[in-house]
Amino acid sequence: MSLIPYLTPNKKIKKKKKRKAAYKKAVRRARSAVTVANLGGYGKTGGLARWGKYTWRVTADQIRTLATAEFSDEWDADGKKREPAEAKLSYPVHKDLQPYVNIASEIRQWRSLIGKAAYLYVGGTQFGTTKKYRLTGVDVQDVAQVGGRIVGCSIDLTFTEVKDSKSTKVPKRVKKKTTKKTTKGKKKQPKKKK
What we know:
17% of the residues lie in helices and 31% in strands. By secondary structure, it is α+β, with helices and mostly antiparallel strands.
């Protein structure tokens, strides 16, 4: 992995605020260049994989990569139908590679997402079928502790394909036919002269 080059503020810019803004912009540009160099060809987001808002990627701050990605699709011969597809992702979490990640809270976050569904992408393309995948299982293995704090583990995630059902489909709106009755008003008769 390439490192971010050391950047110095541009002394030619007179105002301090503009100089700071230019420096921050240069740092962002350098970080994105490092990400693109390390992950060229992994989609527009520069990520290895994505499920909903969660992204596995390598950045200047942290390394979050997948250990395994498995996909299984089965046909039930007795019922003569296709079973929902299943996808399994596994990734390591270590304090050395992800210094800004609280591992215990990340495990709690995955547990809170069980039952949620989103599209699953690996390598910039949809993984498995083109339907949404629901998170159905979270398995934490190889937990390493130092001084009572979790410093490393392996998180295994199980996703199941969401099948379309009649209850989840949004019904089409039907335009109501209105029957307007046209009533003719009575004509005013002219007043009779006396």
